[in-house]
Amino acid sequence: MSPAARGALLIAGTTSDAGKSVLTAAICRWLARQGVRVAPFKAQNMSNNSAVCLDPRTGAGAELGRAQAMQAAAAGAVPEPAMNPILLKPGGERTSQVVVLGRPLAEASAQSYQSLKKRLLGTVLDAFDDLRSRYDVVVCEGAGSPTEINLREGDLANLGLARARSLPALVVGDIDRGGVFAAFHGTVALLDAADQALICGFLVNRFRGDPALLAPGLRMIEDHTGRPVLGVVPYLRDIWLDAEDSLTLQGRPLPAAAAPAPGREPLTVTVVHLPRVSNFTDVDALMLEPGVEVSFTTSARGIAEADLVVVPGTKATVSDLSWLRERGIADALMARAARGGVLLGICGGYQMFGKNIDDPVESRGGRVEGLGLLPVVTRFAADKTLARPRGFGLGQPVDSGYEIHHGVVSAHGGEPLFTDGAGVPLDGCVSGNVIGTLWHGTLESDGYRRAFLRWTAQRARRSFEPRSDTDFAAARLAQYDRLADAVAEHVDTDALWRLIEHGPTPGLRLLPPGA
To answer: Cα–chain-centroid distance for residue 320?
Structure first.
């Protein structure tokens, strides 16, 4: 097949967390390695784990789902808001911030968003068409399941998109959960005829076991549905990628770091898993470092013993600060700081470390008292700061940082953490052994991460020395290549090409509704 063929493909799933994001990234990487210019696309995403990119239309900072930024990296493409035109960022149990083409549009309840979606269909289709005009192939990721029949009317991300642009769809099922054959059959049977005609095959994901025992089931599901199984992807246990949301944080594969060198102590890191945690991928680079042991906690346990405690970002700073107090974590953090422990607050965590927070925007709670660990104050602004800053920290260049926050922090003491080349303060505050910064992603800069770990080890009195050959960017790229290898080995790539080039398979059998 021609690597220059233009087309598109939708990767849907039987459930959330079936593996859509990973397999979309895998197919993007597989295509890119063959010289295809490929872009990912997810019409509507719900996640507090977002990334910051530059909007090519304006040059301004913009926001998109972290999974789409990851898929763009796998594709070798520059991330942009068109790859995720609608991003929903939950701020409570029933409300979300609606981000459209990278910028906040409104706060909406689940009910009011259903009305808003009708106005956003044109935005979604324009973004898709724009990408398709500039790339050879667009690989689309669905959201949840295409058979959420209560939400089918007005659907933007699954078969609503596929119908509007005649896209062939593959359905991914997680066989490790069980029930994959029933899920495949039910997905097709619950759809109307026009939607069924777009379901062109299945991908079995996370398989472990004897392929000979699976083979009869594959033949039977093909007979029952009239659609082929185009691949059985094995359970790739140690693949670590940016997750879409914190629901998968605890069970998420982590970077595999080696043991510390002989005669060297490990460095222990405890990360507070906030209820509305966002951008928790900030600590991925620490997990990759040999001898750094990272754990997560939702209680005060482990904070007193850790060499470093990290309080990450959050979509609900004031609410999560109250949660810290209710859980006794706030007291544990203050006690740890009083004993000289090293604490790192990132974005929302940094704001919590300050003297007070004035929030008329996110929580509308007015002024609340912070933990008083840093001489800073925060006031929330209506406009969100979205930027890709660069600077220097601890004597090392930092070129991996990004900002995404409403809170504007003013320091009234301490030392800046990041400066420009002339030493002018840019961000952050260091006071004793407590550090705060609004910049996410800084630990992905290898030189700065090593300097930060040395700084932490000295203050924790640990004989720990970070290795000089740990390359975070190379390690992440190797993950994408492993995914592409899995596609090449375990998926019928000729069939993928046919769907990309020619669209939905004609003459597919239609099942009676509810069959």
So the answer is: 20
Q: pLDDT tens track of the chain, all 515 residues?
A: 444 447 999 999 999 999 999 999 999 999 999 999 999 999 999 988 889 999 999 999 999 999 999 999 999 999 999 999 999 998 777 788 999 999 999 888 878 888 888 889 999 999 999 999 999 999 999 999 999 888 898 899 999 999 999 999 999 999 999 999 999 999 999 999 999 999 999 999 999 999 999 999 999 999 999 999 999 999 998 787 866 554 444 444 455 555 555 556 899 999 999 999 988 889 999 999 999 999 999 999 889 999 999 999 998 999 999 999 999 999 999 999 999 999 999 999 999 999 999 999 888 888 999 999 999 999 999 999 999 999 999 999 999 999 999 999 999 999 999 999 899 999 999 999 999 999 999 999 999 999 999 999 999 999 999 988 899 999 999 999 999 999 999 999 999 999 999 999 999 999 987 66
Q: Could you give the 3-state DSSP secondary structure of residue 377? A: strand
The residue ranges of every structural domain in the chain are: 7-240+477-502, 262-466
Write the DSSP assignment of 107-156 as a string of letters: EEEHHHHHHHHHHHHHHHHHHHHHHHHHSSEEEEE--S-TT-GGG-TT--
CA of 366: how far to CAs of 90, 92, 326, 506, in Å? 20, 17, 19, 59
CB distance 31 to 137 below 8 Å: yes
| pTM for this prediction | 0.89
For residue 96, give the nearest of 81, 82, 111 by alpha carbon: 111
**Fold adopted by 262-466:** Rossmann fold (3.40.50)
* Residues tagged active-site: 347, 440
The domain 7-240+477-502 is placed in CATH, from the list 3.50.30.30, 3.40.50.300, 3.20.20.80, 3.30.70.20, at 3.40.50.300
Q: What are phi and psi of 242, to 5 degrees?
A: -60, 125
Q: What percent of the chain is helix, strand and coil (3-state, nearest 5)? A: 35, 30, 35
The H or E element containing residue 229 is strand 229-234
Could you give the CA distance from residue 242 to residue 220 in angstroms, rounded to a whole number?
35
On the question of a common fold for 7-240+477-502 and 262-466, the answer reads yes
Structure tokens at 280: 């928790």
Q: Are 40 and 9 in contact (CB under 8 A)?
A: no
Q: How far apart, in whole angstroms, are the C-alpha atoms of residue 409 and residue 438?
A: 8
Q: For Cα atoms 254, 259, 265, give the angle at the middle one, nearest 5 degrees.
A: 115
- Closest listed residue to residue 10, CA positions, set 162, 185, 118, 215: 162
